[in-house]
Write a structure and sequence with these properties.
Blueprint: E1 13-16, E2 21-25, E3 28-32, E4 41-43, H1 45-52, E5 58-59, H2 60-68, H3 77-89, E6 93-94, E7 114-120, H4 144-160, E8 165-171, H5 179-195, E9 199-206, H6 213-219, E10 224-230, H7 251-263, E11 269-274, H8 282-291, E12 295-300, H9 314-336, E13 349-351, E14 371-374, E15 380-381, H10 400-407, H11 430-433, H12 438-445, H13 455-478, E16 487-489
Parallel strand pairs: 7-8, 7-14, 8-9, 9-10, 10-11, 11-12, 12-13
Antiparallel strand pairs: 1-5, 1-6, 2-3, 3-4, 4-16, 14-15
Domain Radical SAM core: 111-348
Family: Belongs to the radical SAM superfamily. Anaerobic sulfatase-maturating enzyme family.
Pfam family, one: Radical_SAM
Length: 491
């Protein structure tokens, strides 16, 4: 992005944000504002110097005059004015001094214009992964009556709240085992939402082991995505993801099916779930992902030893998990930092529930607000990890967002911590992780809004990801004929 696109109020007094992450990288500077929408940027020395001019607050016009008076400053008014405008727009300069700790009261989300639906359409699965959060393979599948009732509830909820978009995910179990049910549900929901001018985006969350003409036809419909869960690369993937009957690993079957998808111009999204046992292959996995032009979310198995059972060694077990994951992710980033690896930084990589492009507003996900998790019996639970709970039946007025909030009544305003210094609000990275997964926190610490047992991993991986992002950004810019740019950014 060229600097001349930006502007600001020349009479304003601005302050450098105390929340910025800034670090030298080669002959440039990384800048990232965790509390403001926008990905990391890279700037050169003089723009970083301009930012520092507002350390104690300064009037924009005074800074411009001071720079224009310098004999060693070669740029005109437009360039310095636009640079300040850029720094203001990206949240590095504020009208008022910004400090840490953060205040959740200023982070509350407006009413949603969209919501997500995790439709747990069946329990049955052809794999037998020991860490799976679906513990009961009862063969349960959502009945036609429940499907119709759920569709009507979703439509009424969308109308009541002025929803513009619905993001539907078919999950299980293995949902591709009941493709007729997916077809029926989507067709019914499309018919009702079309009358309401609500956009429907659907996707399937699959283990990738099943492929047939009927599934391909389903995936070729507009606004349909396909996510494939992997645990690692090749043999590492097969440690847990084995077929239920034969006990064979599933990697080779998935690779074959991905080849079929590519033949039909269908690009899957890779959902990688990394454990201590599989993380050694993470560098190979991410290289394979980007060689194939896929996008991915890298998640972690949060149950130590694949179990939520309380242990007297739980604290040390989580520290060991954090240490192991820090090493594995660092090696993966090192592999991806090679100039030969091309990545679209804006969309290609997500890590756990971390939010780099849009600050989290007190909670790391849509739990209890705009994420509906619906069981095969039609009851709602708070999260896919809580599917074994009985859940709550939809309210009589079929307002599923209200039922969602009733089932998870906790507020991020009600935080638990030992000392104020130990509260996540005192951490620079709170807008990125928001204290981590509320369900994990509740199971480990007894409250959803407290310090995550994965905190040590987060505080390492967030700045490491920003460094990786900046490295790839500079590689991309150096291939551009306009290099060197004063400002390098991906919006």
């Amino acid at each position: 992005n060229q600097v001349h696109k930006y502007a600001c109020d020349i009479s304003a007094t601005l302050h450098k944000s105390a929340r910025i992450f800034e670090q030298r990288i080669e002959d440039q500077w990384i800048l990232f504002a965790p509390d403001v929408a926008g990905l990391p940027v890279v700037v050169n020395d003089w723009i970083h110097e301009v930012l520092g001019s507002f350390q104690n607050g300064a009037r924009v016009s005074d800074i411009i005059i001071a720079y224009q008076a310098r004999k060693d400053f070669l740029f005109g008014f437009d360039v310095i004015f636009s640079a300040i405008g850029f720094l203001r727009e990206r949240g590095f300069l504020h009208k008022e001094p910004s400090t840490i700790p953060y205040s959740i009261s200023t982070m509350q989300e407006p009413e949603p214009t969209s919501f997500g639906v995790w439709l747990h359409i069946n329990n049955s699965c052809n794999l037998d992964c020991s860490y799976c959060f679906v513990k009961k393979d009862s063969g349960t599948v959502m009945s036609p009556e429940v499907m119709e009732r759920t569709v009507l509830a979703l439509v009424k909820t969308a109308k009541r709240h002025g929803i513009k978009q619905v993001y539907l995910k078919f999950a299980g179990g293995e949902p591709t085992l009941v493709i007729s049910h997916m077809e029926q549900f989507r067709k019914l929901l499309q018919q009702h939402l079309h009358k309401s001018n609500v956009e429907l985006h659907s996707s399937i969350l699959s283990n990738g082991t099943i492929m047939n003409k009927r599934l391909l036809a389903f995936l070729k419909q507009p606004d349909t995505g396909f996510g494939i869960s992997l645990d690692g690369y090749d043999d590492s993937h097969d440690i847990y993801r084995t077929f239920k009957n034969s006990r064979r690993g599933s990697w080779s079957a998935i690779i074959k099916n991905i080849g079929i998808l590519k033949e039909h111009s269908i690009t899957p999204h890779i959902m990688a779930t990394i454990s201590k046992e599989t993380c050694s292959s993470l560098p190979e996995l991410v290289q394979w992902i980007y060689e194939n032009g896929f996008q991915t979310r890298l998640s972690i198995v949060r149950e130590t030893n694949c179990s939520w059972e309380c242990s007297t060694k739980r604290e040390s077990e989580y520290q060991n998990l954090c240490d192991t994951m820090k090493e594995a992710f660092d090696k993966a980033f090192c592999a991806l930092e090679h100039p030969s690896v091309s990545i679209d930084l804006r969309i290609a990589l997500d890590i756990c529930e971390l939010q780099f492009d849009q600050p989290a507003r007190g909670v790391a996900c849509g739990i209890g607000r705009r994420h509906l998790v619906i069981k095969p019996d039609g009851n709602l639970v708070s999260c896919p990890m809580t599917l074994d709970e009985e859940g709550l039946a939809p309210s009589e007025d079929f307002d599923l967002l209200r039922t969602c909030r009733e089932y998870f009544p906790y507020s991020p305003l009600e935080r638990k911590y030992d000392t104020i210094e130990n509260d996540c609000l005192s951490c620079r990275w709170f807008p990125v992780c928001a204290g981590g997964c509320p369900v994990v926190n509740k199971r480990v610490h007894g409250h959803p809004f407290t310090k995550s047992p994965m905190c040590d991993f987060y505080t390492y991986i967030i700045p490491r990801y920003i460094q990786f992002f900046a490295t790839k950004l500079m590689q991309s810019a150096k291939q551009n004929k306009n290099w060197p740019l004063s400002i390098i950014s991906k919006r």
